Amino acid sequence: TKVIRVWSAGCAGGEEPYSLAIAWRAVLAERFPAVRLEIVATDVDDMSLRRAKAGVFDVHAVANLPVEWVAACFQLLDDGRYELSEEIRRSVSFSKGDAVTDSPPEGPFDLVLARYSLFLYLAPEDARRALEKVQRVLKGTLVTGLSDSLPQDHALQCVQGAPNGVYRCSEDEPPSPNDGRPATLTELLGLEERLGT
């Protein structure tokens, strides 16, 4: 079994890492049966982490998910909210962590998600420090928020064909779809190259 590791940095209420876990279960797990997805999620806010670990969301949080995914992964509660299945909740490991002051989770990670303005509001020196920590454990793709800008001296490469905010380690060969379409999740995770599919 191969393991694909993901770090959701600044995971807020858990929507991002859980969405990835749901998409993996619904679409990719069957296609890649010899691969296990391991998701680590960190946030600095205790209240957000409690909400994330509970795995209970209002109707707006699930409104854009395919109906069959909601049926397979959630239980409708009496109060109209949706509770994630135990299987999905167990697939994400949450912990408290500050991207600037704390050590990053133990890497390496194939994908780091830092989409919730991780770098946007930081002072330049703090942004540099946070990026150094991300780069220390990154062995694949970094996805930032569209409004985030990385410190200018970073050593990452933009992924050709992907939206702004998608980077790869400079020693990695970036996925480059030659038809102009955005890179897919399997390309960002490097599944085809790793498994020879």
UniProtKB/TrEMBL annotation:
Highest taxon listed in the record's lineage: Eukaryota
InterPro entries, sorted: Bact_Chemotaxis_MeTrfase, CheR_C, CheR_MeTrfase, SAM-dependent_MTases_sf
Transmembrane segments: none
CheR-type methyltransferase domain: residues covered: 1-172
Pfam families the record matches: CheR (PF01739)
Molecular function GO labels: S-adenosylmethionine-dependent methyltransferase activity
PANTHER family associated with the record: CHEMOTAXIS PROTEIN METHYLTRANSFERASE, CHEMOTAXIS PROTEIN METHYLTRANSFERASE 2
Name the UniProt record assigns to this protein: CheR-type methyltransferase domain-containing protein
Organism, scientific name: Pelagomonas calceolata
